[in-house]
Amino acid sequence: MSKEIRQLEPKQLWNNFADLNAVPRASKKEERVIAFMKAFGENLGLQTIVDEVGNVIIKKPASKGMETRTTVVMQSHLDMVHQKNNDTVFDFDSQGIDMYIDGDWVKAKGTTLGADNGLGVATIMAILESTDIPHPAIEALFTIDEETGMTGAMGLKGGLLNGGILLNLDTEEDDEIGVGCAGGIDITATRTYVEEDTPEFKIGFTIEVKGLQGGHSGMQIHEGLGNANKIMNRLLFDGFENYGLRISEIDGGGLRNAIPRESKAIVAIDAIHEATFLSEMTLISSTIKKELKTTEPDLEVVVTKRETPKSIMDLGVQEGVTRALYATQNGVYRMSADIPDLVETSNNLARVLIKNRNIKIACLTRSSVGSAKMDLANTLRATFELTGCEVEFSGDYPGWTPNMDSPILKVMEKLYEDLNGEKPHVAACHAGLECGILGTNYPDMDMISFGPNIKGAHSPDERAQISSVQKYWKFVLEILKHIPEE
């Protein structure tokens, strides 16, 4: 299907996207894509640098007549979120993304597409290899590990870049010009527990929550999407309260920045309650489906009888953990009082893994206000510590404070209106962009973020709009032509 993709306009962008998507590039496994990008720059005869953490920098001189314009840093991240549907057979470590066209959209077969942030990377590649596009001096910055820690941006040292303007190509609405973003912090709660032999009078069941949309835990946290971990805990809590349900294993969610789509639990109940337990699970599942019928029409709860598990969690630990998960804040915590419709602070209950005497609960807390971020993080810490967990904070990164007087913002606002006959939406977003981190070592750089329409990022429903990419590409070309003098 990549042949079809390569025929789309603008061909120079889509061809580079197809080449990029043939390279496995999971976060923290970027060795192959780093080598790919290094070879790309060197084959063009351009100065190519791989810094000590793995970021790739490719520098291209200005085109004729543009030598006195301000040097522009064009920035995107190389890694992508690797998510697939449970029934999709796919090896992210060895296979390229299998893409296809569906009307006005490019999609992937059962996996994430990698448009986040592959379309930004492909855009920059097209500019670097061009011979007829007017542009100032370009410093292309391809960072690593944006999706699971932003360690590439954090590790980028000052002095490697000389540009005065940074164009971050990692926004997912084509009518939006981004001027700020949230910061984030990972919260990980762990503890061990004692297993008990499952009593002979108990029987086993598997409970599965699936069919949820999932999505980006920043950009889509306000949409009321279902969280598989919260739904599963509700089922387990109800089963324990009414039928003495005991937990053997739970495996729910995955990446911290993806809203959990699926969860699976192995449980045991008293055999005498089998019929009423199944009836209750049907009833509570129906209730949850009604609550989420608008946002999650494909939600499924499947309860299947199985071999009785050999062991179950210690009762006291089970009670504490299920109560802590019930109390865990998930979704929007506070809306901004200063910027209309902006989520200020949120949390994503991303991962619940209970197995082999070990508990791991992972959250990603975001906020555009640093103190509010830490306040919610400490709320979660207290919740988990009350049930005997050890709690670790990691991956803390700053937000990006909006600068409404940005010179490049004024240029881009006018260009957008001239091209499209309407004003752009200038906004801060609740996602984590690298601009705030990059600004710590490059505080005088004027930064803006924008991009084409991408829906369902971080989920197998991820898709990129073809007509929007064309609109965005024209905008990119106009911006480069109108970069101001130094």
Automatic annotation (TrEMBL):
Chemical reaction(s) catalysed: Hydrolysis of dipeptides, preferentially hydrophobic dipeptides including prolyl amino acids
Query: Which Pfam family, any one, appears in the UniProt record?
Result: Peptidase_M20
Family classification: Belongs to the peptidase M20C family.
Q: Name one GO biological process term.
A: proteolysis
Q: Name the chain's protein.
A: Cytosol non-specific dipeptidase
Q: Which UniProt keywords apply?
A: Cobalt, Hydrolase, Metal-binding, Metalloprotease, Protease, Zinc
Q: EC number(s) on record?
A: 3.4.13.18
Signal peptide stretch: none
Name the coenzymes or cofactors required.
Answer: Co(2+); Zn(2+)
* GO CC aspect terms: cytosol
Q: What species is given as this protein's source? A: Seonamhaeicola sediminis
According to the entry, every stretch annotated as the Peptidase M20 dimerisation domain falls at: 207-294
- Please name the GO terms that the record assigns under molecular function: metal ion binding; metallodipeptidase activity
